[in-house]
Write a structure and sequence with these properties.
It is a single chain. This protein is α+β, with helices and mostly antiparallel strands and 780 residues long. It has 26 helices and 15 strands. The strands form three sheets. It has a five-stranded mixed beta barrel. The chain has a five-stranded mixed barrel with strand order 6-7-8-10-9. A five-stranded mixed barrel has the order 11-12-13-15-14.
Length: 780
């Protein structure tokens, strides 16, 4: 060359199977979102599909990757016409430097800091293929280990996970793998009405579905249809269709909606719904259907009509008379018998209380009771049985009462006999002749002995009658109290029996707090199996989209197994929970419970129990760190556990291991958390050393400085906190060189002033104002 110019060196393009280093570049417009865009060597662009970001067992919601940015690198948008744009790291750095406004920089830094894929992070990836605009890459561990085979295509009825790519009013598309998408129509998104599908299923959301069909398209690509309804996912048997419905057949269902003209019922294990008209809701006249049925009620229906010409319109009947001859109506019969027993207590059928309301009876509490009784007997009238019953039931101190109330209750035949007034002579023959008395003298001894026996029986029966009356009175008071509690709503606040819990769960089946209280109620009765059954019912009843509520119940079940189960049952519960929840969260919950168990054993003081609890906790934390070595939250939980137990050497050794296992961009947060734990459970000096080192390497991280200051204030060392503020305001007096913008300095002065308002005095507040004025004048 005559000009003497050196030929430009062009790096080789990465090929399929190569392992390359890439830098996440959020300023490149995402291709086929959800995805991660990377800058590769030689200015090439890489695209990592959301399904290739991590292994399938570590998938989680990544809504942030589904957002498309309006601004992108020139040449990658629609006007690029497919040309490859070379983007180097230096160009990206210059573009950052040319951006104006400290506020936008700070917001971008905050957004990247809280993201799992921050801008500028370096990652290792494997090239899977090439395209005109970008190379397809993968960050999965199994890809980096050499597995380049595509994910298998699922078959019908398989359960699959995927990420939502786009949502419209007609349904949504779900990405199952980088080369396979699935379609979900609107009615199969949820069992309930979805008013805004786009808000409920944003791009990047992780969902689960059941494969309906898999078919081939013209281009050779597989087309998959899936169903995401909870009823389909949880149903293991064939569902009832409209073709299976026959007139006069009976089904169970649930009330979905109640209107003034009737109630809509959905048949169990199906998508079939129908209307029970107000005339078919009850055998008697119903003024307001909404007072009779409510959404969520479990009912039994009979198909009255099916009009297939008008879109398979169904009409149901809810009349109780239609189900009288059913085999499962015995429960209702038992309920009717119980009702009759209650009626007998009220006095309509039984005989015990029917005499209490007799207006002609003599009041045994009256002061002239004896005089009235004598006058009535002298008049020749029979003594009223009711007054005798009442007097015997009220006379608690008499053991020789002549009442026959208990005998009357158990032997109705004796009801018609007169009161036994035999006390050794006959009232009617008191003035009779002596020969008559001599004729009856032969039976005196027999009558006397039988009278004594009758008196003993009457005393015992009277005592039993009083006990029954007292028990019945307590029962009635309890029923009245429960009715009042149900009326004013206080029964829902403190359920006392299984019926109360079932009533609450019928109205709020997704409330994990009620399920956990139900389990605790069974445990209070030492019924562990019933508590487990309640937990299993909760997993079936709670909607699968309520992941947090289900995880709470799983945590309660794991706690139950920790305290009442065996090691095998605990491991089985952990495996089941990991299959249906985020496994990392499951292990963290178990480790948290074991940490509490160690604290409880330490407070009691038993060395054997403490050693056993510590051993179990150590094994579980070690297992979690080995299983999730790339997750910082697991390492931080283990570090906190060790420092709480004053095991400082083990904690520092574990910190070194965590930094070797975690990616570089997570080191700062782990070190910061470790320094905070040192302030709380370890040595404040070691915490200061770590914070000083972090701020020395990251002089722009104001969040680290604020955390450092908060810890000093919490420890009560205000002088050191003031020294930190002064080192930022007056950098000449400190070796540390901070690089904060004017807006950040404004935030710093505000925080300093708030600290002096809470913990300082007027002089210290004036000092902050003086420092702020001096800084403003200096910056001008």
């Amino acid at each position: 060359d005559g000009d003497g110019e050196r030929p430009a060196f062009k790096p080789l393009k990465a090929r399929k199977g190569d392992v390359v280093a890439g830098r996440i570049n959020s300023r490149i417009r995402r291709l086929g979102p959800p995805s991660v865009m990377l800058s590769l060597r030689g200015g090439y662009i890489g695209r990592c599909c959301v399904t290739e970001v991590s292994d399938m067992d570590e998938w989680e919601n990544l809504v942030e990757l589904g957002q498309t940015s309006d601004s992108g690198v020139p040449g990658t948008g629609g006007d690029g016409k497919g040309q490859q744009q070379v983007v180097s790291d230096s160009d990206a750095d210059h573009s950052r430097e040319n951006e104006d406004g400290d506020a936008s920089d700070e917001e971008q830094e905050q957004e990247d800091r809280h993201s799992d894929f921050p801008d500028g992070r370096y990652v290792m990836c494997r090239v899977l293929g090439g395209a005109k605009t970008a190379l397809d890459v993968s960050m999965r561990r199994q890809r980096l280990d050499g597995d380049l085979e595509d994910d298998p295509v699922p078959g019908p009825n398989d359960m699959v996970h995927g990420y939502v790519t786009c949502t419209s009013k007609k349904g949504c598309f779900v990405r199952l793998s980088r080369s396979l998408d699935a379609r979900v129509i609107l009615k199969e998104l949820s069992d309930d009405f979805v008013p805004d599908p786009g808000a409920m299923f944003p791009p990047g959301r992780l969902v689960v579905g059941k494969v309906k069909t898999v078919r081939d398209s013209k281009g050779g690509k597989k087309l998959v249809d899936i169903d995401m309804r909870e009823s389909v996912l949880l149903s293991g048997e064939d569902r009832i269709s409209i073709d299976d419905i026959e007139v006069n057949e009976k089904y169970t269902g649930v009330v979905t909606r109640v209107e003034t003209y009737g109630a809509f019922v959905k048949i169990d294990n199906s998508d079939v719904s129908g209307l029970a008209h107000v005339t078919e809701c009850s055998d008697s006249f119903v003024k307001d259907v909404q007072n009779l049925y409510h959404p969520g009620d479990l009912v039994k229906v009979q198909v009255v009509s099916l009009d297939r010409e008008k879109g398979n319109r169904l009409a149901f009947s809810l009349k109780a008379s239609n189900f009288v001859d059913d085999s499962d109506s015995s429960d209702d019969d038992d309920g009717n018998e119980d009702a009759m027993d209650v009626d007998s207590d009220s006095g309509e059928v039984g005989e015990d209380h029917g005499d209490d309301d007799d207006d002609n009876s003599i009041d045994s509490d009256a002061s002239d009771f004896v005089a009235k009784m004598a006058a009535k007997m002298a008049a020749g009238g029979d003594v009223d049985e009711d007054s005798e019953d009442e007097s015997s039931s009220e006379d608690d101190d008499s053991d020789s009462s002549g009442s026959d109330s208990e005998d009357d209750e158990e032997e109705p035949v004796a009801k018609t006999s007169a009161m036994d007034t035999n006390v050794g002579f006959d009232w009617d023959t008191a003035i009779s002749s002596k020969p008559q008395r001599e004729e009856s003298s032969d039976d005196d001894s027999t009558d006397t002995s039988s009278s004594d026996e009758d008196d003993d029986k009457a005393a015992k029966s009277s005592h039993k009658s009083r006990k029954k009356a007292a028990a019945r009175k307590r029962e009635e008071e309890e029923i009245s109290r429960r009715e009042a509690a149900l009326a004013d709503g206080t029964a829902d606040e403190s359920p006392e029996n299984a019926a109360d819990f079932e009533r609450l769960l019928a109205s709020s089946p997704n409330d994990s707090e009620i399920w956990i209280k139900y389990m605790a109620w069974h445990l209070s009765l030492a019924d562990t199996d019933s508590a487990r059954n309640v937990a299993n019912r909760a997993f079936d009843r709670i909607e699968f989209r309520q992941e947090g509520e289900k995880l709470n119940v799983w945590t309660a079940l794991l706690t139950l197994e920790l305290k009442c189960g065996t090691d095998k049952s605990l491991n089985d519960a952990i495996d089941r929970a990991s299959q249906q929840n985020n496994p990392k969260q499951v292990y963290l919950r178990v480790c948290e419970q074991l940490d509490k168990e160690v604290d409880a054993a330490a407070s009691v003081g038993g060395s054997t129990d403490l050693d056993t609890a510590t051993k179990r906790a150590d094994e579980m934390f070690a297992k979690a760190c080995k299983k999730f070595k790339s997750k910082k939250s697991v390492w931080i939980a283990h570090l906190q556990y060790l420092l709480k137990g004053s095991r400082h050497e083990e904690a520092h050794s574990l910190l070194k291991r965590s930094l070797q296992s975690l990616p570089q961009y997570k080191h700062i947060e782990v070190m910061s958390k470790f320094a905070q734990i040192e302030f709380e459970h370890g040595s404040a000096e070691r915490g200061r050393t770590i914070f000083d080192a972090l701020l020395g390497k990251n002089p722009k991280r104001m969040d680290l400085l604020f955390v450092y200051i908060d810890k000093e204030v919490k420890c009560g060392d205000l002088d050191k906190a003031r020294a930190l503020f002064s080192s930022v305001v007056n950098p000449s007096s400190s070796d540390r060189k901070f690089k904060f913008s004017d807006k950040q300095m404004k935030s710093l002065f505000k925080k300093w002033f708030r600290m002096e308002e809470e913990h300082g005095d007027e002089d210290s507040q004036e000092r902050v104002k003086d420092e702020a004025r001096a800084f403003v004048s200096k910056s001008k």
